[in-house]
Amino acid sequence: MKWWRHAGRLLLWLLPVVFLFWLYADGLKTWFVADDFAWLGLIRNVGTTRELLGALFSPAAQGTIRPWSERGFFLLFESLFGLDSLPFRICVFVTAAADLALVNWVTRRITGSSIAGFLAAILWTANAALVTVMAWSSAYNEVLCPLFLLSALALFMRYAETGRSSFWWWQLVVFTLGFGALEVNVVYPALAAAYVLFVAKESNRRKLLFSLIPLFCISIVYFLIHRALAPLPTRGPYAVHLDSRIFPTLALYWKWSMLPTGWNTLGHSARTGGAFVWLLTVALAAFFIVQVTKSRHLVCFFAAWFLITLAPMIPLPDHRTDYYLTIPLIGLAMLGGDACAQASRINVRAKWMWRAVALIVLAVYLRAMVPVDRVLIRWWLDRTKPVRALVLGVRAAHETHPGKSIVLDGIGSLLYDDSFGNSAFYPLGFTNVYLVPQERDTLRDVVNSARLPAQVIDPASLWRGITHDQVVIYSFLGDHLRNVTKDWARLDSGGHLSSNPALDLAPRRVDAGNPLLEYLLGSGWYPAEPSGFRWMSQRATVRLGGPEVANDKLLLEGYCTAAQLLAGPLHLIVSVDGVALQGVRLDGTETQFRRLLDVPASVVGRAGVEVSIAVDRVFHETGGRELGLVFGTIAFER
Predict the structure, then answer these.
(1) Which residue of 122, 175, 296, 509 shows the fewest CB atoms closer than 10 Å?
(2) 87, 98 in Cβ contact below 8 A?
(3) CA 87, 93, 99: angle at the middle one, nearest 5?
(4) Class of domain 506-638
(5) Is the pTM of this model over 0.70?
(6) CATH 2.60.120.260 occupies which residues in the chain?
(7) Does residue 337 sit in helix, strand or coil?
């Protein structure tokens, strides 16, 4: 029967992984969405070693620096597999499976119970907070970080057990690398200290605590350097607030640990959900208290894991999301696994009663989580399907109509936020994809509404593009694109389109690199660059629809090379219909510029005005061109 025992042990390791792949199977089929496109676009800016290092280590959104879990992850897999999402998803699942093995091992080692390790892995897998992580490639950091934390802890545990310094040094290496996955890695020394205080042998604690001093120093230095490179935000959803709001935030995260966030929205009873939360809370609290009174302090380590890894998220009351619980939940899963294992070790007379209680609590937890997991992971798959159809459809349209601009109709708010609003076509190198004019009104409530003006084509430019065979118009039908260019052109047979008064007005916004708007550019412009920008010479003009109201401003957005500024500040002379505006000065390291200039009241309400821009100094490109500035947007806006 020895082989049977080995098979049983192997199953205790494999079943959590099988459970993971079964529960989140649809996550293997999800495509890219939302923030994914920002990371997918990185590869277009990487051509040299210096650019690669900049892409990997420069602070990004909210000051994050995550070279392994975001930048490196997307750069590597996109360079190998392009926009095939399956390899990305497989990597996420394999990493999560490795996390499960470590959760299992650490729990077994601490509790001495293989059942506790097995159940800890099952409980962590089942929690609905993992759904986003298992469906969205941008959340890869949430499964990669625990791989570093658990690996470092496992090595430290071996060092504590054996005294071999090689384990300590390897722990140091893993811990240091963990900073490239997620900022939460900074709490690892506190986790290791909690292990020493609550689990390690008392005779060995002083030595082990002293060995952690270098790790605490590394975390402090990392925090100071990180804050210097990326200061803590003082406003917005990521602003840190150390006030009384941390308590309701902690309470909410506890609730989400016991009950899925989508419980009520999926039609389940709020009263039943509340009962589940209280039952699980009371059961865990009772077990914890009983174990502490028995001087079984290892349960304090499990609780400490939850609180320590959650601590960085508690001061963010304006940005609370359930997938932040991915790492803290490991502690609660260990505690729950230990509780179920201990229920079978109580004295014989009460043994079956406690087993029944443990099974009931376990069944309640799985009943609350697993059905919701299956629904939510399917929701993610359904969410990404139209994004895939849209992006790949546009790619096919570009291949069918090379050199033409693509104009899209039928894009809803959710699809816009998941694709257009996150520059979904930039990774493909497409800068000439637009929305029909009607979308300006239908997409008012989207998250990234500030990007709409540059993405919605005006009626005059659209009609001119149709008549000059510069555009193709596609309608999005949910899972594919349909070419409706002829339908739009046919509207003019009755004069419906060409009689639109808006066609007599020049656009109030011109993106200099847009080929559809090239007819509005006057003298002094060079051909558009592949990047979607356009150089001007020393002086250039552009025609715009005049400002609508007196408080409209003239927006100038562009780029100035660092070499130009080495010779001193640059000055722009700007006028509207011959009326000079205030001067613009560019100096220092301001290679990218954005200026809003007051406009004279005399030009308000005009159907069209000529904007003149001149720069006081140019540089000569090899080949003879006199280059002034690179322009993106010239527009009137409020």
Answers:
(1) 296
(2) no
(3) 140
(4) mainly beta
(5) yes
(6) 506-638
(7) helix
